[in-house]
Write the structure tokens for this entry.
Amino acid sequence: MKILLTGVAGFIGFHTCLRLLAEDHEIIGIDNINDYYEISLKEARLNQLLGHKNFSFEKIDIADDKALKQVFTQTTPQKVIHLAAQAGVRYSLKNPEAYAQSNLVGFTHILEGCRHNNIEHLIYASSSSVYGANTKIPFSVTDPVDKPVSLYGASKRANELMAYSYSHLFALPTTGLRFFTVYGPWGRPDMSYFTFTRNIIEGRPIDVYNNGHHRRDFTYIDDIVTGVISALNLNTSANIKYRLYNLGNNKPVELLHFISVLEELIGKKAEKRMLPMQEGDMESTCADIESSIEDFGFRPVTSVEAGLGKFVDWYKEYYQ
């Protein structure tokens, strides 16, 4: 298959691309390599992909309509995996314009590119953040999601609604994947597990919000990638053109336990600054994955202990 993959220098995009290349697919990767977090990490991921016989790369921003149209028409992909986005809940309080440009304007350009280029299937990243103020656990794709508590969550819900309209109007097969707290090697430095690891190793205090009582459905990157590729291969000739799924571990972990696992792996105790809940944060997340299991066999297999072990090993090697 020839696949256009956006956000290819990002955490999930990089790992997804590696797996698809190993399966001998042809990948056209695009990314704007922005400075939301350290560019050197994005470049290091990208350098592992460049030179592969089935990989080509274009440095463009999905908000640039003209450049994106050119990629679609010149490369003629069969399917699209759209993972590019402005990520982060807390950053959306500081720079909302970045979310409007990437997650709304950029997503419109992706939908238009798929519509006008006979794309067989669009897979796109949504987020557990769409569940917002919901209190029923576990979160199900059939739950109402009209109370996002962050602009990031609101933008991801908007993506789902926009995809629905294109599936309805133009029979474009779309599948949205609500990711639940993805972690692992080559991860994002703005994520808590990454900053915890860095600060514990360097002997600096860590900020523990909600006094550590958050519960998160931490999901290891390899399990997420397996889910993405399985969803990509769903039957799009069926009458169902619009789909939504949760990709989570279905085993929420309390933040204090998560930190204790890191402490044991690093061999050092953390100095914890216990802080109240932050604006935009959710108390707990847990994915109902019954439909993901039933429709494409999604079954995460990596425990938090095993996954964090692989992350800490990578971190120590990468940062020497």
Residues 2-183+219-249 form a domain with the Rossmann fold fold (CATH 3.40.50.720).
